[in-house]
Structure formats: structure tokens, C-alpha cells
Amino acid sequence: MAFADNLQSLPSIDHIAELQLIDADGQVAATIPNAPGKAGSAKVYNALAAKHGGINVAAAEEGLQIFAEHTEDAKARPGAHPNIDRLLEVITSGKGYTVKVVPA
């Protein structure tokens, strides 16, 4: 399935302003706003965190499947899709993130 189709199956994020990814040291490593151009990633990360309790290796592997055609593009063009790059890094390093939801 295509990314757009996969997004349709995920829960709404209308109630979310942004997601904060917290690293093992308790620091905010990244934020993903619920904003144009980033809302799809926020929706994916929110669903993964709800299902897996955070962004761990299993969540990252599932996320790559959800991102579908964008995953291959991210592998071919590192830096073009930072939220996919982050999932690839989680798989490689084994180091994940706790996700904090910032309400809208």
C-alpha cells in the first residue's frame, strides 16, 4: 500500500500540537509538529508510540513499512526524510525514544 493509504488507517492527531522524542538521557532529541509537511510523520510516530510504548526497534521497523514508497527514497537520499532517517537509526543503533504528546 502507498503511504497516503496507510495514513488513512491511523488514528487522528487533531488533538496533538506536536510530538517530542525523548532520548535515553531524558533530553528532547527532536520534535515533530502537527503541521503541513510534517503531519504525516506525526501521525505515524503517534500510532507507533501508542502501539509499542515508544519508538523502539519493532516500532521503527513497522514505521518503515507505513512510510512505504518514502522509505526507499529516504534510503536513496539520506537527509531528505529526517523522520524516516531517525527510524533507520533506531534500527541500526537499537536506541529508541520515549514519545511525549503535546496537546493542541
Automatic annotation (TrEMBL):
<dbReference type="InterPro" id="IPR016755">
    <property type="entry name" value="UCP019302"/>
</dbReference>
<protein>
    <submittedName>
        <fullName>DUF2322 family protein</fullName>
    </submittedName>
</protein>
<dbReference type="Pfam" id="PF10084">
    <property type="entry name" value="DUF2322"/>
</dbReference>
